[in-house]
Design brief:
The chain has 159 residues and is mostly beta strands. It has one domain: OB fold (Dihydrolipoamide Acetyltransferase, E2P) (Beta Barrel). Helix content is 0%, strand content 35%. The chain contains no helices and 13 strands. The strands form 3 sheets. Strands 8-13-9-10-11-12 form a 6-stranded antiparallel beta sheet, with no helix packed on it. The chain is globular and about 55 Å long.
């Protein structure tokens, strides 16, 4: 389901010339095609976890979710990463203003209606420092502190 073979370049460009040395070999990998939120009409997508899979092309695990329109793969997270995700758990997008202070979030969007851009790697998570005012103050995985609009979307937990 939604898997395809990932072609390797062996360090060669479109003309067949070696541009990066020492590339080659390795295990054959299948790419899981992820369902990303595309526009505001799909931003409230929820899904129920069917199974969790290892994806060799990403640092994070992916879950096969049944929901919205069809079965799809999503990058997932739990309270302590993938260990906490259970089969049958519903994954849903929440707004930053609805998350409590001190809680961790991942896949945070920078603009309303946009797909999440911050904290998408395995083990990454942002911490909510303060709520109120014009937005939500968030400590990013790099340690930087930023104020982000409270209407922006995110997922609760750690990838």
């Amino acid at each position: 389901m939604n898997k395809r073979e990932l072609r390797k370049s062996g360090g060669r460009n479109n003309r067949g010339r070696i541009t990066v040395r020492h590339r080659g070999g390795g295990h054959k990998r299948l790419e899981r095609q992820l369902e990303y939120n595309q526009g505001e009409h799909k931003i409230e997508m929820t899904g129920v976890v069917q199974r969790v899979e290892y994806d060799p092309n990403r640092t994070a695990y992916v879950a096969e979710c049944e929901g919205y329109q069809r079965n799809c793969y999503k990058i997932i997270g739990g309270e302590e990463g993938v260990k906490e995700v259970q089969i049958g758990k519903e994954i849903k997008v929440v707004k930053l203003k609805d998350v409590g202070v001190g809680e961790q979030v991942y896949k945070v969007s920078l603009r309303k209606g946009q797909e999440g851009k911050i904290a998408r790697a395995a083990g990454a998570g942002c911490i909510i420092v303060k709520q109120g005012g014009k937005g939500t103050i968030v400590r990013m995985p790099s340690g930087q502190i930023a104020e982000i609009n409270g209407e922006n979307s995110c997922y609760q937990g750690v990838v």
